[in-house]
Amino acid sequence: MIRLPNNCRPTRRSILSGPAITMASLLVSRGLSRAEVRPQFSTSHGLSAFGDLAEKPGFKAFAYVQPNAPKGGTISQDVYGTFNSLNPYILRGDPASGIGLIFDSLMAPSFDERDSLYGLIAQSVCMSPDKRELCFELRKEARFNDHTPLTAHDVVFSLNILKEKGNPTISQGLQGIQLIQAKTDHEVVAILASGLNRELPLTIASQPVFSASYYATHPFDETTLDPPLGSGPYRVGAFEQGRYISYERVSDYWAADLPVNVGQNNFDVVRYEYFPDRPVAFEAFKARAYTLHEEFTAATWVRGYDFPAVEDGRVVREEIPDANISGIQGWFFNTRREALKDPRIREAIGNAFDFDWTNKNLMYGAYQRTQSYFENSDLAARGLPDGAVLALLERLRGKIPDEVFGEPYMSPNSNGSGQDRSLLRGASDLLSAAGCTRDDSTLIGPHGRPLTIEFLDFSTAFTRVTQPFIKNLRLLGIDAQLRIVDAAQYRKRVEDFDFDITTQRLIMSFAPGEELRALFGSKAAGTVGSRNITGISDSAIDSLISEAIAASKREEVVAICRSLDRVLRAKRLWVPQWYKANHWIAHWNVFGHPRHTPKYNPGIIRTWWSTTSK
Fold first, then answer.
1. Percent of the chain scoring above 70 in pLDDT
2. What is the pLDDT of residue 148?
3. Fewer CB in a 10 Å sphere around the end CB: N or C, the chain?
4. Same domain, yes or no, for 349 and 394?
């Protein structure tokens, strides 16, 4: 188990005397019911970050499903790289895509709501007014796919093992659990550490539940290709390491008729086909090696779908709206590198990327430039700071760059020539101000050595975008190179922070909390395998993150995130790329789907179905 600091660990005295622990001690030692101990505790069929559940108790199904959708058939889609493990919850190995389909959690999300969960394994949750004490009541019919009962002891085992040995992105989010116990076979009591973390109850409720008896004879913290025991709607089917993996629908799935599952999990087989990169995968799609493909390349979407199957209607293209905060996609700097520590150098590198030329000539004008860490949402900073945002920033004055009190930093527009001389001159001035000098055509960094940069990637898909960027960097005297490695090596190097610049697409929620700590927190900066790939470590940012995690009202989260957005943008941690507010989906015409598409997830694997008539 991950050790809490001494002043955070529950002692016998704190458990028996602390007001926030009283309920747990009474429940465990005296076996009293929740109503007998704390009548003011609230019981609910779901959890929400701000308490605003859209579905009422007793709802029959989500609005975005077709309740009587037919079962059967196969859906297959492409993924890139390889896999060598069926355990996605530890740092080691390359896990297979889709493996989460075999596990159930205490509660399940609605794709139509922001940060809401509804009962799955747990039929209800009881919570104290301060949200520090929770009790999940489990369904007595819950079971694993070998028909053994799923109990509170399995839930406790799962949360403890994830906290102790799970991937850092998971274990870090569970550190606020102070005590987790099985009161009975069907009740789990959780006590959370002081300091409100509105996300922790949702984090607990959304973790996979493992079989304690299964892992009594199977080491959890090792990579494995042995199909693990789950309780979810699918089990691992046929697979060949690195080539494909399939999941078979569990015909007697215990939770098939619950409201959170009605109209979902309709395919008999879900299959993922592995390819080295996108161009190869697309050629395979045209040959119907798999049946569904999400397109990420504008040139291909505009010009590539001219093959006979599209023309005669056997392949269908759809644009599905996406109301999510757009992914934070860009080239991220590793500020742990000596040559990239100065934000002026990072800004100069960013000036060498001509988005306007790239969008027009390579992407058919299909994208908008990403500027904010919360693009396409009300969390993005705009204009001059005022009100609550200004008040937050004033408290940090002297610890944050002065520029955050003005307009938020915007990546510059170019003249669209691909080689904007004014931007390159500005970049050269920034490099000089950072202590760089020129030796003929070579730029010498402030550390006294030639300034070299390696772009790390595992696919050739971005090569046509990266190479013009590299060309401009070389005009500045920077020795820039593109390195393509295999997927396994890429993952290892990123986990070990062994890179200069790499392309990433990070996802934010509408009420961000723990993911902020994982992406930008100081502790994560020094944790191998963490999501803080930039290595940012800043006390002012940590302070804003703590406030975001503790905020109990939506308007507080908005003000904090707008403040954080300004500070992060002033750090020049990345070269933002682009976004679009929809999904480009192409598929062979063998599927049906509900009329209503959920707002925050295309819901394809969960809600579509096979149409034998086609």
1. 93
2. 98
3. N
4. yes
